[in-house]
Design brief:
424 residues; Immunoglobulin-like; elongated
Amino acid sequence: MRFYLPILLMLFISCKKKENAEPKITITSPESGKVYIPGDTIRVEADISDDGVLESVTLKLLNAAYTPVDHQESFSINSSSYHLSYEYVIENIYLETGNYFITLSTSDADNDENEFRSIFIQGIPKTRKAIYVLTQTDTSHIEVNKLDSANQLVLQFDVSGDYSGSAISSRFKELNVAGKITGAINKFDLISNSLLFYEPAYNAMIPSFQNLFFTNELTFVSYYDGRIKAFDKNGQVQFNSAQPVYYRPGALCVNDKYVFAEAYYAGPGENRLVVLNYPSGIVKQEYNAGLDIASMISKEDNELIIFGNKNGDGKIYQYHVLSNGTNDFHTLFSNTIYSVVAIDNDRYAIATANGLYSYQESSNNLIPVDLSEPAYSLEYDEVNGILFVNAGRKIKEYAFPDAVVLNTVISGDSLLDIRIQYNK
């Protein structure tokens, strides 16, 4: 009997291995390395088999980090073999150029099997879709206009209340508008021009909202009572600053590590810079800048360029988080900075009471561009290299930093801001 025991054991192990054999997936289409663009259809052909019954197979599109980046499809099998033939449409128009994987996954309850086929997706070029212009008809109404091909402002819809800031989400086709004393926080659908989200002002005679900053599809708003909140595309709160605090937050800037806020302390009458950890919202440190901050631009996680005003002069500072200190870069004597936009990582356009300037950080060089009239706010078209300047009741376009005005659009009402919507 003992001579047969090894044979029986081997037969048992052999049967056991057969029962637990992994499913087999063979992808025959698409071809490895084939090139697609968003909107294309990928013909997926594959044979799936197992020695047992397979319930389903799942089809996904993964990026180079093996993260799903588009819709997934599941197919019922309930058989030991299955031929998949499916036309997968790439729906995500925001995919960047690079390598991706068509992936099929199945399981026989004991073993999981995944098969990958490498493809290349050429991202759709970013293009300008529309130019929106926010104007103020009176102190309690804002008009949202679109600039048409004939350079005419065409009214889209009205917003009740006053104004503190705005931003467009090109990806979700939404316009965010924040009021100040009478205006609410609003989120509008730019396809239907309908209101998606609304948070009313909570103060009667003093401001409720101070400033709006948009980054990574989150809208950050500073509140007069000390709060800073961030809303997602659905109006859900995704960030809350720790409370209580004893300052009024104003201008904002956000990067992956910190929320930077201008902080006014009413008691001593001081303007400071507060650095909050992100996403916890806990205050990390403060710096007594003594500056009325107009704009902040994050250079790196631990470095910030601050544009503001002090003692009747415009000022440009570099702030370092690690040392909690600044370098005084430049002074615009007897001038007031209203707004700043980054042209690239080294150059900035500055709107001031005296007009438009160009500033290069690496050389600390400030160059007048157009000092014929004040410039109040700016928007830069990064695709076409066009700078839009709010000059009060007119929009001026520049191939910045060229001083030649390419186009001028006259508005019957006071301009608040110019906002660009892209295709993605």
